[in-house]
Specification:
11 helices, 18 strands, globular, alpha+beta, 9-stranded mixed β-sheet, about 350 residues
Length: about 350
C-alpha cells in the first residue's frame, strides 16, 4: 500500500519486483478518476492498459491532451515498404494512432534533446509525477516511484508548465525566464517544484543536500560527473555525513559516471544489475536525514539539467521547526527510505 499523508501519496514499485505498490494500477486509477480533463506530458506511451484508460476518459467526454517525445514515433531509417507495420517502437505508433482515433489532442514535443517529463494533471486539482515511464517495462520491470498530490496550487504549477510545453516554449526556445514556481504547503508538508532546463534543478538538489545534518540516501538511474551533485556528495562525506546509494549497474559503469570518485570519497555504493525479471533501477530518488524526499523525472546528469525537459518535486524542508510538519515529512521520508533499504538488501551488490 502506498504511503499517504493527507493529500500526498508516494508509491514505490513495481510489485512484480517485490516493491509494495502496483505502479500500473496507480496510474490507471488516477486517469479513471478524471471527471473533466487530463493534461498528460510523458516521454513514452507504450503501455496498452494505460492508453485504454486515456481513451475511456475521452469517451466520458473529458478533454484529454497529450504531449509525447517524438523520437519513439519515428524510425532511424526509412522502410522500403512504409505502409507495412513493424520495426522498433511499433507499439508506440500503434497506440499513438489509437488515441488519435479517439479524438485525443496529441502533440510531439519541440525539444531537440530529450522530452523526459512524466506527469499528469487531473481536473486541474490533482497531479501525478515520478520516475515511471508509461511502458510495460516502466511499470513492471524497472524499479520506479510515483508521487500523487491532490492540491489545486500544485496542479496549477504543472498546468502552467504544460501550456508552455504545448507551445514549444522552454530552454533556448523560451521567451524569457518564468518566475520560479511558488512553494506550496500541502497537508503540512512544504513542496517545491523545479523544472528543467529553465530552473536548474541540479543547483536546487545541491542546496537541499547541504542542509543534511546526518545522512543522504539515494537510488538513481543515471549519475554523471558532469552534474555537480557528485561534488556535493564528496563534500558532504568530508563533512561527516553518511552517504549511501543504489545505482543502476549498467549506467554506473559508464565512463561518464560519477561512481568511482563518490565511492573513493567514502560513500557506500551498491550496484543493481539486470537479472531475471529486473531490467534496471530507474528511480531518481533521494532522501535527506530520513525526512526530505526528492523525487521526479530528473536524472543526475549535466544534459538533464541543461537540455532535457524534466521536473523535480521536493517534499519537505529540513529547516522546518513545526512538530506536526516534521512528523508528516518523516512518514513520507521513511517510506522512500524503506524502499531504498529494500532495493539494497534484495538487489544491491556493494562496490568494494
Amino acid at each position: 500500500m502506498p504511503q499517504k499523508v493527507g493529500k500526498i501519496e508516494i508509491h514505490m514499485g513495481p510489485s512484480q519486483l517485490g516493491a509494495p505498490d502496483d505502479l500500473e494500477a496507480a496510474i490507471i486509477d488516477f486517469i479513471d478518476g478524471a471527471k473533466k480533463r487530463l493534461e498528460v506530458a510523458i516521454q513514452e506511451l507504450e503501455n496498452e492498459n494505460i492508453t485504454k484508460a486515456l481513451v475511456r476518459a475521452r469517451q466520458r467526454k473529458c478533454v484529454v491532451k497529450v504531449v509525447l517525445e517524438g523520437s519513439y514515433l519515428s524510425v532511424d531509417r526509412a522502410k522500403a515498404e512504409p505502409f507495412e507495420s513493424g520495426g522498433s517502437n511499433e507499439e508506440n505508433r500503434i497506440l499513438h494512432d489509437a488515441i488519435l482515433r479517439a479524438n485525443i489532442d496529441v502533440k510531439t514535443d519541440f525539444n531537440p534533446h530529450i522530452f523526459h517529463q512524466k506527469f499528469i494533471i487531473r481536473d486541474r486539482e490533482s497531479l501525478l509525477t515520478g520516475s515511471t515511464n508509461f511502458t510495460p517495462t516502466g511499470t513492471s520491470r524497472n524499479l520506479n516511484h510515483l508521487v500523487i498530490v491532490h492540491d489545486k496550487a500544485i496542479a496549477k504549477i504543472y498546468y502552467r508548465e504544460f501550456k508552455e510545453i504545448q507551445q514549444g516554449h522552454f530552454g533556448k526556445l523560451n521567451e524569457g525566464h518564468d518566475p520560479a514556481p511558488p512553494d506550496v504547503t500541502v497537508s503540512k508538508v512544504p513542496i517545491r517544484v523545479v523544472f528543467a532546463p529553465d530552473r536548474n534543478p541540479e543547483m536546487e538538489i545541491m542546496k537541499q543536500m547541504q542542509k543534511a545534518k546526518k545522512r543522504i540516501d539515494f537510488a538513481i538511474f543515471a549519475f554523471s560527473q558532469s552534474s555537480g551533485i557528485d561534488d556535493t556528495m564528496i563534500a558532504m562525506v568530508a563533512a561527516g555525513r553518511k552517504v549511501r546509494g543504489a545505482l543502476d549497474g549498467q549506467a554506473a559503469n559508464q565512463v561518464w559516471a560519477a561512481t568511482r570518485p563518490v565511492r573513493n570519497a567514502g560513500a557506500k555504493l551498491y550496484l543493481v544489475r539486470k537479472k531475471d525479471t529486473l531490467n534496471k533501477l530507474h528511480h531518481k530518488l533521494m532522501v535527506l536525514d530520513g525526512q526530505v524526499v526528492i523525487a521526479g523525472s530528473f536524472n543526475y546528469t549535466g544534459p538533464a539539467t541543461r537540455l532535457n525537459d524534466e521536473n523535480v518535486m521536493i517534499l519537505g524542508d529540513l529547516e522546518s521547526t513545526n512538530a506536526a510538519s516534521v512528523s508528516a515529512q518523516k512518514k513520507l521520508g521513511k517510506y522512500a527510505l524503506d524502499e531504498i533499504d529494500r532495493i539494497i538488501d534484495d538487489h544491491g551488490v556493494r562496490i568494494p
